[in-house]
Amino acid sequence: MKKPGMFVCICLWVVCSWAEEPADTADVSGEQARPVARDQIFQSLDALQTSNETRDFSERFLVLVKEEISASAYGDRTKEQCYSVINTLSETGAYERRGADKGNRAVFVGLQGAVESALVRMLKEKELAECVGVMYVPRPPTPLCYNVKGSLDSGDNASIADPALVKDKERSKTIELRARIVREYLDEGGRLYTVYPRKGLALRSSEQQETFLNLCKAYPESLYKHEIDDAEFVSATVGATYKFRCFKCNAVLFSIQSQQALDPKEDASWKLWFGPMQDNSSLEERWKTFTEAARLKG
Q1: Each residue of 5-44: pLDDT tens digit?
Q2: What is the pLDDT of residues 186-195, one digit of tens each?
Q3: How far is Cα 261 from Cα 285, in angstroms, rounded to an integer?
């Protein structure tokens, strides 16, 4: 078992002892060497400990994600692919695959649901100091327009997804499962911004619009609808991003680039990002790109 705390304590003893030694040496210019400022030492050690805490938190979070995959209703083949992708993602920080909706949605969106479920668990245990999600979509998000009291192929939900997707057992689960998960996320106080073009609301049925708007009213402190000009919408950015951190660590990012269930494509790029944001230009750039496209600050 790793003990970063012990390492930091040893470093603290060494550097503090060094800082307290008299500065009786001179540099090559003949001037007396300046003693190291103790504040700088403690700042460096704090940064080191925070970095260790963030790494450990990130690793523990992935354990929860795998547990959520295991407990999900997806089939064994989908689960095995999810494990493979998350293992690669944990090592590289980014993962991309091209292909048809049929071969990718259950894995990528299934992983998204597992991440959201892991966030719900941490929110319930009061482990997160910050948790904010942004869904960037051409119409209000599918999970928030889905009536959880009905079924996928009837009533208010009949036109919520492409007919071929509805008939696909694994892909249809992404809608039904995440509709409940996202509500649990909101129940636990997770913040969620839904960003879509002004014409997007009208692209949902009247029943789906009502479901979505009622949820916005039910969660006024955590669910925000943010409409942007139609011309400003960037189709290549469609997906979702979550930024979160524990009380002793820096921010961690999870992001997915995908398509809505009404827009399955035969050839599309599916992407995932995950990891601590600090000193990771790829993750920082993804957050910047996503929030700028969404016209959000921070």
Answers
A1: 544 444 444 444 434 444 444 443 444 445 555 555 444 4
A2: 999 999 999 9
A3: 26
- Does 32 reside within a domain? no
Task: Give 6's contacts (C-beta < 8 A, 6+ positions apart).
Answer: none
Distances in whole angstroms, Cα of residue 183 to Cα of each of 143, 177, 235: 8, 10, 26
CA nearest neighbour of 264 among 160, 135, 165: 165
Does the residue 176 lie in any domain? yes
What local confidence, expressed as pLDDT, does residue 297 receive? 75
Locate 242 and state its tokens: 């979550």
Range of the domain at 210: 39-293
Closest C-alpha to 142, from 262, 228, 291 = 262
Question: What digits encode the pLDDT tens for the residues 69-111?
Answer: 999 999 999 999 999 999 999 999 999 999 999 999 999 999 9
Lowest model confidence (mean pLDDT) among 25-39, 70-84, 120-134, 135-149? 25-39
225-252 confidence digits (pLDDT tens): 999 999 999 999 999 999 999 998 999 9
Rama region for 41: left / alpha / beta (φ>0; ψ in -120 to 50; rest): alpha
Strands (E), 158-257: 191-197, 223-228, 239-246, 252-257
Number of domains forming the structure of the chain: 1
Residue 134 resides in a domain: yes
Amino acid at 109: V
Is 67 a member of any domain?
Answer: yes
Q: Burial code of 257-278, b = ≥16 C-beta within 10 A, e = fewer?
A: bbbbbbbbeeebebbbbbbbbe
CB 99 within 8 A of CB 81: no
